[in-house]
Model the fold of this input.
Amino acid sequence: MMKFTGEMDDDELPVTKKVMKWDYFNSDFAASQSKFEDVRDLCLKFEKEFIDLRPYMLEDPYTVSTVDKLPKVLDLFRHFHLRALPVIDPNHGLPVAILTRQDIFSYMSL
Done:
C-alpha cells in the first residue's frame, strides 16, 4: 500500500472524475445499523477496489495538540460546532487520536 503525502499524490493517483453527490453520504440520518452479512458481502464484492475520498475530505481541518489545554479544546468545539478533532503530536506532527464530543461530555460533569 502506498503512503499518501499530499499534492504529489495526484500524479500517481489522479482525483476521481466521477464524484458522488454529498447527500448520498447523508441519506441514513437515523444511522441505522446494517446487518453483518450485508456488510461482509459488500466488502467481499469490492475487495480489490479503492475508494478515493479526497473530494469529500477537509484539506485543512481544525486540530489540537497533545499539549493544548482543555479550555482551548472546548472553545474550538463550541465556536465551530465540531463533532470531532484530530489530536496531533507536536514532536513529529502525526495524528495520535480523535477527540469527540462524547469524550468531552464523559469527562465533564454537566
The first strand starts at residue 64 and ends at 65.
